[in-house]
Amino acid sequence: MAKRENDSISVKDLMGSFIKENNLSKGMQKIQVEEAWAKLMGPGVVSYTTKIQLQQKTLIVGLSSSVLREELSYGKEKIIKMLNEEMGAEVVSKLMLV
Hints:
single chain, alpha+beta, GMP Synthetase, Chain A, domain 3, 3 strands, elongated, RNA-binding protein, DciA-like
């Protein structure tokens, strides 16, 4: 039986290199920003969220409540800052609530 080499690589490092090699980082950011929105905004806001799209550093969030849309519009800068901190990079520069 042949000896195994003990060059262990973590799954996180392996997935990171796979994503970089196949140019999938933008697609992963779109998924991660949806998860970050749900985590930061909580179940109350998520229940009124109809769509989330990331297009060239602009996060477009569809909301079914006009009252909630107005309330969130007052804190756009704070929401952008919180999302970028959660993502660990400058992913969102503009937030559109529709």
